[in-house]
User: Which sequence fits this backbone?
């Protein structure tokens, strides 16, 4: 049965790869992005582009109005849009933190809320619907210089757990997707967003801060390879509660569990240059 699927954040990386994989399997995909022109490669492949700014309720409503008019229902919502704000906690401004949480935490919650009527219509038609929220394995542990991003993904995991219980009575399954390293332009965007003021106490660790921006790209899995098992799992009935894939998606959470806390902290501190401050 062909499903109608809407994915946020499809300009590149995970979102674009998921859109291509679902489309390859014969499903109707609405690939969305804040800047619709970035969706040109997907449109050229026959995938339907749709402008959607997750931080703008009117934009979200307009996108779902299009889906309602054209299909009348939504079988799956994938909340993938997000970014990484890099920088030491004490260097981040209020605006940095607000922007991080607005995009990564508040927006998936509000987008889901607006999608529920279309998801319920899908349940009435087909028996179930799915919401997949893309978190991260760093929502399970925190690294230096990425507290805003790591904490935002931990919050996404928590919100996803609540949504799973709250939407279950209506036949809507909720999945926490927790990627490890996946190859994309994510690191470039993260490095462009590095917060390192001239008077920062962490100037001597600048190399480590910039390394943290690119950390998820070291040995990363190609997004197209990542998409295959994720799509497999999301199309299962029922889908899994938690889904991990990508480089390090098993190893790093396991190390967090097995290593003494002080040793785990020490390894991360050395990896990202905090030793340079001693």
Assistant:
């Amino acid at each position: 049965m062909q499903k109608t699927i809407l994915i946020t954040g499809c300009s590149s990386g995970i979102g674009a790869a998921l859109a291509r994989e679902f489309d390859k399997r014969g499903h109707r995909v609405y690939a969305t992005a804040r800047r619709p022109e970035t969706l040109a490669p997907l449109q050229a492949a026959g995938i339907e582009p749709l402008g959607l700014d997750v931080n703008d309720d009117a934009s979200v409503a307009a996108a779902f109005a299009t889906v309602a008019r054209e299909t009348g229902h939504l079988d799956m919502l994938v909340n993938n849009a997000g970014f990484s704000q890099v920088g030491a906690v004490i260097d981040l401004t209020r605006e940095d933190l607000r922007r991080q949480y607005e995009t990564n935490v508040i927006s998936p919650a509000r987008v889901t809320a607006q999608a529920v009527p279309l998801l319920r219509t899908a349940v009435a038609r087909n028996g179930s619907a799915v919401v997949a929220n893309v978190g991260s394995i760093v929502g399970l542990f925190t690294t230096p210089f990425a507290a805003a991003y790591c904490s935002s993904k931990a919050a996404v995991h928590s919100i996803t757990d609540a949504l799973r219980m709250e939407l279950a009575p209506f036949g809507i399954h909720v999945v926490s997707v927790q990627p490890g390293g996946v190859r994309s332009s994510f690191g470039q965007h993260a490095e462009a967003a590095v917060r390192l003021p001239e008077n920062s106490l962490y100037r001597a660790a600048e190399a480590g801060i910039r390394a943290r921006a690119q950390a998820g790209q070291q040995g990363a899995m190609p997004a197209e390879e990542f998409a295959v098992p994720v799509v497999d799992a999301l199309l299962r009935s029922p889908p899994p509660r938690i889904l991990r894939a990508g480089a390090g998606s098993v190893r790093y959470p396991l190390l967090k569990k097995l290593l003494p806390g002080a040793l785990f902290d020490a390894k991360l501190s050395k990896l990202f240059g905090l030793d340079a401050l001693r």
In short: The two ends are 60 Å apart (CA to CA). The chain has one domain: 4-277. The chain is about 45% helix and 15% strand. The first helix runs from residue 13 to 24.
